[in-house]
Amino acid sequence: MIVNMLKLGGRHFPEPLRAIDTPPQQLFWTGRPPPEWLDKPRVGVVGSRKLTPYGRLVTEKIVSELAGRGVVIISGLAYGVDITAHRATLGAGGTTVAVLPSSLGQIYPAAHLNTAKQITERGTLLSEYPEGSPIAWKSNFIARNRLVSGLVDVLLITEAAINSGSLHTARFALEQGKTVMAVPGNITSPISEGCNNLIKSGAVPVTTAEDVLFALKIPASAKKDMPLINGTDEEKSIYELVKQGVAGQEELAMAANLDGHQVASTLTMLEISGYIRPAGAGQWVVR
């Protein structure tokens, strides 16, 4: 394994990490040079180490679709959501970056060594710890999280309990001015409590990869035009406006010359009929 080093003051040091609190003084990397993916849209995917079948399913589905659209997936190689996100990206032929809490010569956890090797073929392994550093002190994991959030445009938590370490990453992301998104889960499941609380606190809810693409300002996949809808005049008017890119409820009300109650009920009927879907933050897009 060839390990390379970037210094904080160096020309190729990742620009997003220069501006964070306590930036690393150096970064060690192996695999593809960071400049190859730093100019692409980047999403951090983190969450619980004890992943449920639901969490695994939504992580694999959303990440595979994002990777297929050229989004770089960044995570921490940990058990659960992290390793699922890395493997889903590799399976989709995408680029993934793993930020380690240990030196590159001591892959942590060791059980993910084979995946780490695969990552170097299509992406990058990163660490701020030089060779010979002690293996993963507890504080290293929290320190690693600030780098994950610092490198991304959007942070997505797919499943997390109330005490999940991924919530540290969410806090760093918010402090760094990044968009935080979360997948809602079963309200009776402790493993989903962290995500559900994030959404209640203002995180953008995610139910499809298109929600994340919308946050990244990446156009949805080209689709055939839907036939003229069967519905009221209000439904036809609102649908055409959404199709043209008018996304917010207030903007729709002004453009269609309807009051808020009329727009809300019309949006509901269009969603039930399968013509539009919510994109988060009060925005709507066509299906």
Structural class by SSE content? alpha/beta
CATH architecture of the largest domain: 3-Layer(aba) Sandwich
SS strand fraction: 15-25%
The strand count comes to 11
Largest sheet: 9 strands, mixed
Spans of 5+ residues with little confidence (pLDDT < 50)?
none
Order of helices and strands: EHEEHEHEHEHEHEHEHHHHEE
Can you tell me the number of structural domains? Answer: 2
The percent range for helix content is 25-40%
Q: Compute the number of helices.
A: 11
CATH fold node name of the largest domain: Rossmann fold
What's the N-to-C terminus distance? 46 Å
User: Overall pLDDT, averaged?
Assistant: 91
Instruction: Based on Cα principal axes, name the global outline.
Output: elongated
Q: Order of strands in the sheet with the most strands?
A: 1-2-6-5-4-3-7-8-9
Rg from C-alpha positions? 21 Å
In the CATH scheme, the class of the largest domain would be Alpha Beta
